[in-house]
């Protein structure tokens, strides 16, 4: 019997928002690695980091932990290793 | 150490079951200029390069693993439920008899990944110039894969990866400039 | 942007070349070849989503790869 739950449209939308904000953080990280004194870029970086944290709190409350080894809290039962994995969705 | 995050860097969608495209994409999985080579090259070079560019090698190396996962996702989705005869037809018969549907670190021609693909010369200029060249070669490989792919959804993700090679090349070029700067003159007492 | 991202060349064509000749060949010359050290405060894409789908935060580094027909 197929017991898998289908992911709602909102899941994909929220994931895309996280991917977008985290992408800006990747770009700013590499930029700051070669431009360490750009204060405005650092302010933007910290601002985006805060946005990312808020979006991830929202995501994790609905769909489970994004990270482990203690970087995310766990619900009961342990749901970190629940499918689907990123390559499966 | 590293932490895994349960998401892809960029959405990966493919339109059809297409093992032929998967066969080509393996080039960027376990090929000379692929994502595995890139990740291992940069993370290995970072131990013996001046501190002012270590962070960049560390962070680009880390991003390359996210790209490796995207390529794996494409290959996985393009071949997931393909029947053995479909794999044979796509030129993946030899792959199937050795690996079934499993991924393997090899190039499109079936040669296993080898450390000979990457260099660590210990000379900062030689290493950074190798990295710039590696990014341009990976960009070219993405172009040739896009040229033979007729899957618009897959091409969207491949264009993202091509653009990342351009940004990485830009940062490595900046790293070369940083290494050339006169500011850290040898102190003579 | 005062540079083009595609360059062209005209290979020699021999009467003994068996494949139908491609008279004009092209190759990519993306913006990282021209930018130099990226200046601070370069304009950014307006939204994070736009940046994601361009693969870069900065339009000055964005590169397109047009389909083959449009490059020849």
Automatic annotation (TrEMBL), chain A:
UniProt KW keywords: Capsid protein, Virion
Domain Protein CotJB: 13-88
The organism's place on the tree of life at top rank: Bacteria
Any one Pfam family match given in the protein's UniProt record, by short name: CotJB
Protein name, entry field: Spore coat protein JB
From TrEMBL, chain B:
Residue sites binding Mn(2+) per the record: 35, 64, 67, 135, 168
Annotated Ca(2+) binding sites: 59
Transmembrane regions listed in the UniProt entry: none
SUPFAM superfamilies documented for this protein: Ferritin-like
A GO MF term: metal ion binding
Cofactor: Ca(2+); Mn(2+)
InterPro entries (alphabetical): Ferritin-like, Ferritin-like_SF, Mn_catalase, Mn_catalase_dom
Pfam families assigned: Mn_catalase (PF05067)
Cofactor binding mode and count: Binds 1 Ca(2+) ion per subunit. Binds 2 manganese ions per subunit.
Keywords: Calcium, Capsid protein, Manganese, Metal-binding, Virion
Highest rank taxon of the organism: Bacteria
Family of this protein: Belongs to the manganese catalase family.
The protein's name in its UniProt record: Spore coat protein JC
Organism: Saliterribacillus persicus
From TrEMBL, chain C:
Protein name, per record: Spore coat protein JA
Matching InterPro entries: Spore_coat_CotJA
Species this chain originates from: Saliterribacillus persicus
Highest taxon, organism lineage: Bacteria
A Pfam match: CotJA
Keywords carried by this UniProt record: Capsid protein, Virion
């Amino acid at each position: 019997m197929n017991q898998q739950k289908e992911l709602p449209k909102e899941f994909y939308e929220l994931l895309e928002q996280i991917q977008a904000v985290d992408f800006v953080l990747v770009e700013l990280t590499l930029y700051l690695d070669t431009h360490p004194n750009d204060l405005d870029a650092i302010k933007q970086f910290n601002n985006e980091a805060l946005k990312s944290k808020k979006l991830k709190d929202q995501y994790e409350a609905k769909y489970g932990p994004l990270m482990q080894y203690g970087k995310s809290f766990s619900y009961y039962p342990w749901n970190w290793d629940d499918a689907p994995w990123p390559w499966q969705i | 150490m590293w932490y895994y995050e349960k998401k892809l860097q960029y959405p990966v969608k493919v339109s059809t079951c297409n093992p032929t495209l998967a066969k080509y994409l393996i080039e960027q999985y376990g090929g000379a200029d692929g994502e595995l080579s890139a990740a291992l090259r940069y993370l290995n070079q970072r131990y013996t390069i001046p501190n002012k560019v270590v962070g960049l090698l560390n962070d680009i190396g880390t991003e390359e693993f996210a790209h490796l996962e995207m390529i794996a996702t494409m290959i996985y989705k393009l071949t997931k439920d393909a029947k053995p005869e479909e794999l044979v037809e796509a030129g993946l018969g030899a792959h199937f008899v050795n690996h079934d549907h499993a991924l393997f670190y090899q190039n499109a021609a079936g040669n296993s990944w080898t450390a000979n693909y990457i260099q660590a010369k210990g000379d900062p200029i030689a290493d950074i110039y190798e990295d710039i060249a590696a990014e341009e070669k990976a960009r070219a490989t993405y172009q040739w894969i896009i040229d033979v792919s007729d899957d618009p959804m897959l091409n969207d993700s491949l264009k993202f990866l091509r653009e990342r090679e351009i940004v990485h090349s830009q940062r490595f070029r900046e790293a070369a400039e940083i290494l050339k700067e006169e500011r850290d003159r040898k102190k003579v007492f | 942007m005062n540079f083009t991202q595609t360059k062209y060349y005209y290979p020699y064509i021999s009467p003994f070349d068996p494949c139908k000749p491609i008279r004009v060949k092209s190759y990519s010359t993306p913006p990282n070849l021209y930018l130099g050290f990226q200046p601070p405060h370069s304009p950014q894409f307006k939204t994070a989503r736009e940046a994601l789908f361009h693969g870069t935060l900065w339009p000055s580094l964005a590169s397109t790869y047009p389909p083959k027909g449009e490059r020849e």
